[in-house]
Amino acid sequence: MLLVKVYVTLKKGVLDPKGTAVKSSLNSMGFEGVEDVRIGKYMEIKLNIDGREEAAEKVKEMCDKLLANPVIEDYDFEITEV
């Protein structure tokens, strides 16, 4: 059994209004020095696959087709054994 941790973030240059709102709120709460905030998504997927290469191919396909919007988002993932 493999555990895949998927991280999806907006590409650099894509405006992040949620991140901007959080940054503004943090600054107004006295957390000075916050330069930038980017909001993303985190997912955990358990796969019943033995090979890491096969798992990586499947996860890449999942990300390209559903989990991320490749036009405006980047993704990265890590695979560990459970």
Topology:
Blueprint: E1 2-10, H1 17-28, E2 40-47, H2 52-67, E3 73-81
Antiparallel strand pairs: 1-2, 1-3
Please give a structural write-up:
This protein has 82 residues and is of the alpha+beta class. It has one domain: Mth169, Chain: A, CATH 3.30.1280. Helix content is 34%, strand content 32%. It has 2 helices and 3 strands. A 3-stranded antiparallel beta sheet has the order 2-1-3, with helices on one face. It starts with a strand and ends with a strand. The mean pLDDT is 97.
Task: Write a brief caption for the model.
The protein has two helices and three strands; from the N terminus they run βαβαβ. The protein is α+β, with helices and mostly antiparallel strands.
CATH classification, class level? Alpha Beta
Count of helices? 2
Distance between the termini: 6 Å
- CATH homology superfamily: Phosphoribosylformylglycinamidine synthase subunit PurS
Number of domains: 1
> Average pLDDT value?
97
Overview features:
82 residues; alpha+beta
